[in-house]
Design the sequence.
């Protein structure tokens, strides 16, 4: 049985639309940048940890922790959105002494996708670690 030319066009358009939609639906939030950056070696304690994502995170449902090398929580809380709506910031209330730190984050994007991750940075010289 032969298809009418208009049916072929409509079928092609439908298939293309489904492929485009499924690709967009599969795209989830991911961390694109952080300050301090992963594996950064800082001369002094940062005043805040800022995380940038490829899509807008829900600050009210997100959490960021800064842990020292022993796993002790040095800072924790709900990060605050920055002027750039795709970034969240956790202000550090205390100065971090020299050492290695891990940032752990759990972020929920506006699409409902949960993103969890971690990275480390150092404060002070590597010899002091």
Sequence:
């Amino acid at each position: 049985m032969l298809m009418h030319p208009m049916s072929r066009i409509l079928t092609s358009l439908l298939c293309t639309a489904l492929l485009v939609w499924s690709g967009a639906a599969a795209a989830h939030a991911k961390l694109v940048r952080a300050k301090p950056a992963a594996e950064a070696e800082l001369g002094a304690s940062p005043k805040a940890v800022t995380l940038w994502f490829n899509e807008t995170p829900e600050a009210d449902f997100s959490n960021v922790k800064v842990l020292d090398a022993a796993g002790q929580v040095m800072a924790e809380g709900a990060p605050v959105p920055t002027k750039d709506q795709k970034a969240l910031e956790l202000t550090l209330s205390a100065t971090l002494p020299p050492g290695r730190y891990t940032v752990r984050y759990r972020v929920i994007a506006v699409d409902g996708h949960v993103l969890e991750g971690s990275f480390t940075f150092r404060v002070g010289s590597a010899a002091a670690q």
User: Anything to note?
Assistant: The two ends are 75 Å apart (CA to CA). Residues 11 and 17 are 10 Å apart (CA to CA). The mean pLDDT is 86.
